[in-house]
User: What shape does this take?
Amino acid sequence: MIFLVFLTAIDLIANPNFILNDTTQVSINVDKSRILADLKFLIKSPTARNDANVDRLNQCAKYIFDEFKKSTNNVVEQNYMVGVREYKNVICSFGPLEAERIIVGAHYDVCDNQPGADDNASGIAGLLEIARLLKAQNGNLKYRIDLVAYSLEEPPNFRTENMGSAVHAKMLHDTKVKVKKMICLEMIGYYSEKPKSQAYPIGLMKLFYPTKANYISVVGKFGEGKTIRKTKREMKKNSSIKVCSINAPAFIPGIDFSDHLNYWKYGYSAIMITDTSFYRNANYHEKTDTIETLNIDKMAEVIKGVYYAIINSK
Assistant: This one.
C-alpha cells in the first residue's frame, strides 16, 4: 500500500512519461549564432536593464521589436505607466488572429545592476529564435501564437501589479480573450555535469529527480498536469536535452517564481520552462551571471523542444 501511494505521488508530481529523447523527427535549424547575437546585445552594456534605467529598457524593447518585425508584421507595444515612468511589453503574433491563443513569454529586465545572462537574457533569446522559427509556419498554425517580452518581472516589482505580465494577463482577461495555455521561459541557459550540482527545495525530491544540473524542467502548480505532460512529451520527442517536470503546490519555493503566476490569477493554464534558477546557478542575481556561463548548445535544444510543443498543441 505504501509503495502504491509512493508511485501515485511520483505520477502526480513528476509527470513521468516513458518516451526516450528522439531527434529523428527534428527538421528545423536553430541558429546558435543568432542566439549568441541576441544575448550579446542584451548583456553587453555598462547600463543595467533594470526598472530605474528606462532608457536602457527602451533600447532592449526596440531591439526585440525590430527582431520580431523580421518574422511577422503583427508586432505591437503594450505601454503602461508606473508612477511617472513608462514601460513596455513587446508582443508579436502568428497564426489566425481571431483564434484561441497560446501565450509564450519571457522578461527582459534584470535585478539591480547585474548583466542577467541566464536571468533572463536566455529566455528572451529563446523567444526571439522561436519567432524566427514560427515565421515558416504562419500559414499552418491552428492557434494564434502571441510571443510577449515583458518588462518589470524583477524586484522591486515582482508580485505587484507593475509586472509587465500582470498588465498583459489583465488585458487578456478584461477583453475576454480565450487562452489555451501560457508558457513562461525563465532562465534556460545554465547547465552542469558535475555530481550534486542540482539542489531542490525539498530533500526527498532527490529520490526521483537528477542530482546533476544537466536537464530542463517544465514546472506548474497542481491542476496543470495535462499541460505539463503534453509539453514535456513534445519536448522529449523533438530535442536531445533531458526534460523533467514538476506539478506541485504553488507554495513550494520556485513553483511560482516568474511571470506565469499572473495568468493563474485569471484562471489561465500557465507553466514555466526553467533550468531551475538558484537551485543550480550560483550566479543568480549576481554580477557573475555572464554570457560565458551559458551553454548555447543546450539552450538551442530547449528552444527546439518548446517550438515543437507550441506547434503540436492540440
Remarks:
- Residues 49-311 form a domain with the Aminopeptidase fold (CATH 3.40.630.10).
